[in-house]
Write a structure and sequence with these properties.
Blueprint (H helix, E strand, L loop, with lengths): L5 H18 L4 E3 L8 E2 L11 E6 L4 H11 L5 E5 L17 E5 L6 E5 L4 E4 L5 H4 L8 E2 L11 H6 L13 E7 L5 E5 L22 E8 L1 E2 L3 E9 L4 H13 L8 E3 L1 H4 L9 E9 L1 H17 L3 E2 L4 H11 L8 H5 L9 H4 L1 E10 L2 H18 L2 E8 L4 E10 L3 H20 L4 E3 L15 H14 L15
Parallel strand pairs: 3-5, 4-5
Antiparallel strand pairs: 1-3, 2-3, 6-7, 7-11, 8-12, 9-10, 9-11, 13-15, 13-16, 14-15, 14-18, 17-19, 17-20, 18-19
Helix pairs in contact: 1-2, 5-11, 11-12
The structure holds flavin-adenine dinucleotide (FAD).
The site of flavin-adenine dinucleotide has 30 residues, from β4, α4 and β11.
Length: 478
Amino acid sequence: MIMTDNSGREALLSALTAAAEVVGSDRARVVWDESAEPAVGGPNMGMFRSRRLWGTLYPSTVEEVQQLVRLFDRTPASIHPYSTGRNWGLGSHESADDDAVALCLSGLDRIREVDIAAGYSIVEPGVTQACLAPRLDGTDRMLNLTASSARTSILGSALDRGVGLRRPRIKDIVGLEVVLPNGELVRVGQWPGGPLTGPAALELFVQSGLGIVTAGVVRLLPRPEAARVVWLSFPSEQLTAAGNTLRRWAHQGLTRSAVRVYDPRAALPYGQDNGHHLVHICIDGTLDTVEALTATVVREAEAAGLDLVVPDKSTAELVEREYTGSPDLDDTLFRAKLGGHRVEDLDEHVGLVFFLPHLPFSGEAFARADAIVDQVRSETGAACGGTFFTLDEDTVLHIVAVRFDRDDTEASRAHGALDRLHELFAQAGFFPSRLDIDHTSRKPGTTPHSATQQFMQQIKHMLDPHGTIASGRYGQTS
Ligand SMILES: Cc1cc2nc3c(=O)[nH]c(=O)nc-3n(C[C@H](O)[C@H](O)[C@H](O)COP(=O)(O)OP(=O)(O)OC[C@H]3O[C@@H](n4cnc5c(N)ncnc54)[C@H](O)[C@@H]3O)c2cc1C
């Protein structure tokens, strides 16, 4: 929407000027040019088209967020909130919508409370894994880490249904503090000392475009006394059988964490280059439990024809740390997967898009999904790699990463592969749980239930009648 309506433009420009006063000029990057047209956002790892943007504001308090929301309530631009904007492969910091005002919440970075005995912490959106996890060192609690950079937001990944090594991140969040589209501040879910009754409104603010989250209550998990990650491998022909073996182990409680199965391309950064699939399975508990369960898994693996891998010691240590809540503050393994660049420079130097469908936990589903990725690889020539990442005993997230060199030809090949992945997985009945900025839930074929979308549209209209908050990748228009 390039604005032709003068009163709309004036309202917006005066809101932007007032917004810069609210946060201070050093915390406002207002980007309209002389003709008062929006500029475009910066580079993003996916090389998705950079969206037109009126500016980025960096508030540092909840009150500032409320004031900003009220300022933009009646302007033609809507607000795109993000925490640290490291949503790599899905659009990074970019809005799905053009002509938004971005609200970067990394300046709200207070750990408001840590209660080790009760097992929770209250954090703001700018609190990263690297900030909170070290606060728990030496305690009997740990943070459920993701395999992304230590400098990613705990709330940001949860609000986009990110996945931790112990369980999906959203399961860690029991309460949210939210600025509503009218600027009002509410708390939903379980807040310490708050009511425990009533409907669970928390999920309304997950992938919805209905509010701006300014804090969350994060569960801290009991820290296991001992943990060991067993590395196994198998040739591709055994994928169905291996998938069903892992399913049986998960059903019988041999592991409490995400089991990861990397295809040969995804296995490369872990030092496995023999063309086989690689498995990580974490066993934890007391020292005795770990000894006993490891012996069981090794024996079972041998019987199922899975090979035990002896990994490089330092890589094994880094993988074990991911599972046990102790992030590598240098991002060694994470950066090795992306060519060694500094985390701050990744959007500029790396080309990668993600496709993230859910699958049932079965060897047959693994084989079906693997065959689709193979088909897309051979049809498009794009470098697709897949990792099966279990979410519970019955559900698996298939992380399909498409890497590319950052030039127009390779980006267009990768985007062609992404479109094809959407198409073929939907035909197989497998739909994504997280979307990129080009494949929003309003695009036909990306999500299965149109009645649910209509219901969400009614809620959006009720809570946000002026479209103050951008619809984003998942939201409906007012
Ligand atoms: C090599 C590699 C490995 C990765 N591994 C993992 C992994 O193991 N698990 C995983 O989940 N991801 C992984 N990622 C993807 C991604 O980097 C993480 O999910 C990251 O945490 C998301 O970025 P962020 O925390 O900065 O969230 P943000 O980009 O800040 O937020 C994500 C989205 O959530 C919404 N949002 C965020 N904050 C707010 C708010 N305060 N109010 C309202 N809405 C908000 C917005 O829609 C925003 O676009 C990986 C990426 C790479 C490249």
